[in-house]
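User:
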Amino acid sequence: MHLHDGLVKKGHTVKVITQRPSSFKGEAPKDYILFGITRTFKGGLGTEGSWGMPSDGDEIARVLEEEKFDVINFHEPWMPMLTWQMVKHSKAAHVGTFHANLMDTAAGQVWTLGRPYGVPLLRKMDLFTATSPASAGMLIAKAGTRETKDKKLVDNIKYIACGVELSVFKPLRKRLPING
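Assistant: Predicted structure:
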């Protein structure tokens, strides 16, 4: 949402595309496109999350044709379903942005280590960005860097640190130096 707001302030036309949260009812907010549905799961040890269910491919194709996006930025393209469904119908440039190193998570091991899923999806990207070398770690390790395009994409990752909303997270008082 903050990326959307920042890009709109700079004069860009931006839409946020996501799967419909399971608890969300009604029309999508302005500048949002909601596909399919998510299901909430409890993973044990106090963990829980949402899992995107397949969306209607014809609806995705229709919306992408109507919108005629120049660029689609996929946040965490490792995550299944919607990314795959969208790149299948998209004529836009694709940017894959990585925020987390999923290597040590069960989801990361199941969905990203599978070469039949991960590598073809990554080959649909035109540019990779990551918030840090750590968040790009699995991408670098698993992208199949023997292929020329894969190597070029991995070698040209653009690192963009996460933004901080200073009006919310500004220090209340001046901090003293650590050493003194």
